[in-house]
């Protein structure tokens, strides 16, 4: 099971999912030991397949850091925080977390788009 290390210890994912917001983007940074990389990828793939079937899921993408150390960044887009909350707290998903290697450290955080004039839209 991965350890959870919040990006913002004052406002961890368990507090974030209680809010009403939408759409939201989950950003999750994973660190792990190199020998656990294949096990991590299998576990993440299983989780992603589960999430893809959930209401409100839009998309996901996994990125690997450049270099020798296996650091991964995943982001997933959801129609609303309520949809993400339902998937994240689903008993089937919670059971899948145990399949991650013990060296994995997950740092999930939810975000919303920000409008910046002449650059990006919200």
UniProtKB/TrEMBL annotation:
Q: Which residues form the ABM domain?
A: 24-114
Which keywords appear in this protein's UniProt record, sorted alphabetically?
A: Monooxygenase, Oxidoreductase
Xref: InterPro entries:
ABM_dom, Dimeric_a/b-barrel
Oxidoreductase among the record's keywords? yes
Recorded GO MF terms: monooxygenase activity
The protein's name: Antibiotic biosynthesis monooxygenase
Taxonomy of origin reads:
Bacteria, Pseudomonadati, Pseudomonadota, Alphaproteobacteria, Hyphomicrobiales
């Amino acid at each position: 099971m991965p350890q959870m290390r919040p990006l913002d210890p004052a406002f961890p994912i368990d507090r974030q999912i209680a809010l009403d917001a939408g759409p939201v983007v989950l950003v999750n940074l994973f660190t792990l030991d190199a020998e656990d990389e294949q096990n991590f990828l299998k576990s993440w793939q299983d989780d992603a397949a589960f999430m893809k079937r959930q209401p409100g899921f839009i998309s996901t993408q996994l990125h690997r850091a450049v270099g020798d150390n296996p650091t991964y960044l995943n982001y997933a887009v959801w129609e609303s925080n309520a949809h993400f909350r339902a998937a994240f707290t689903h008993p089937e998903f919670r059971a899948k977390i145990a399949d991650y290697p013990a060296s994995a450290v997950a740092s999930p955080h939810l975000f919303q788009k920000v409008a910046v004039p002449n650059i990006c839209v919200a």
